[in-house]
């Protein structure tokens, strides 16, 4: 074995010149020392010579656009759907105990929506399978294939998800309002820069002088006519929609009806045709307009019955619209009815899509707007210009009457919580832009305006979404009280009001009260309410309300009407007696005695109603009276409002014209049943 030299050097100084013999050739001079040598390398396996650009320090590439970067092959639609559904299931049922989704339903919901959005964009035709999977994964319904399926809400949810920011505000709002899995997102600050073409006049224009002449105006709401009502069916069913064939009370013996549905209606049922006709026959007589007719009628929405979605259709909606408006024309006289659409006056119920979706999706509900607009034209209630507006603005329109009043109707589905198309944008439909422009025109012309809609913008804040109702409140502030005389809603089936104040309600007193919204009582008794309507006496110049009369019919008396027989009077020409409507109260007579310094011809305006709330604060018994009237004297079902908490809450609701303002009130006392 060779022995290493014991005298090996401890250091070695390499030559300063590059050993040029290492390579056969070079791209540069191998003897220079100012740059690294660039040998020419030939690959003996691939038999190629590598170019200088590969190693030249001055030409280093920014990206490799030549070599392959493999990705998985495109999956089939079925595989995409299957994988995304599996992700939804995994989000709903985390595999690990410390998953970020464990115990966090809001995070689960929004993450699942991200997967659902991928389904909506990639395989929209199969989107209903994704919505059904979402429903099943989170146990949202006992019948997911029906409610979230292809013939109900599935396609509409997919449309919304495809156009929304599911990981952001949209997703949280949807998970909060529609699925109840997230806290509501905060109301964003409104940016009103450029929204109004001019600032609010300061000082406000002088109010119009009263004429001393009074108009009579009928306010109807929430007819909910039920052409499928079955007299004699179970009226106190255990579930579902009562007074229909096949409904039962589960506490009753088999084949036994506990409470047969009376001919004229019941507390857990919608309006049978018999009650519809009876109410419309009674109204002109009680209002004293049999010969003259009302000057006009306002209708604040909801014609269609409360059927489950699987029993509804376009045809049923169109039939109901035709039936009810025909009844109005025949029984209320020749003068116009100004109607707003309600959340039930659509199919699917409560859904209306904005034109901004574009194409067929943006026009998918136009069949309904075209139909009602042409019905209103057919009955000579609207001129052609207003009909065109109704077709373009989701059934909303402006009509200028010959007496100078402008009536503006809105499709309030565009702020209703159950319309999945408007979770975030305060004016996704352009409806509030339309309202603002019409109010500017009215202001320029010196006209006064009534605004009609269905879903109320405030009260408890449980129906209108925060963002659009907040914008609506600012619009009302800008044009009140000199332009807007009154606002009218329906929807709750009950009788109440809300006051709008200046400066977003930062100070609430009789000086800052600007406009009041009147929520009209329903004809339908559903749920546990008496049937009712209201008549206003209105000054013909200011269009302020001078008197408000509310009539009701006691639904508990209806079963006895079915027991009448000709023998009662021993008269073969016996005329059966129908429902009795009677005056429930006059607003001025009931509350006016508590208001000092208010003349009999002074209007029941926002200032007056604020003074009513002051009287209620001094005399809480008035709140309990209001509470009883709210349910139209359905005493059997009315919960008293005598506690300090209830009194405070009710008065707070009365002062809340928007959902954000209502959120400061004590919750849980909005209804009285």
Automatic annotation (TrEMBL):
One of its GO terms (molecular function) is phosphoric diester hydrolase activity. GO terms for cellular component: extracellular space. Keywords: Glycoprotein, Hydrolase. Residues 215-494 form the Calcineurin-like phosphoesterase domain. InterPro entries: ASMase/PPN1_MPP, Calcineurin-like_PHP, Metallo-depent_PP-like. It holds the Pfam family Metallophos. Residues 56-76 are annotated as: Disordered. This is Sphingomyelin phosphodiesterase.
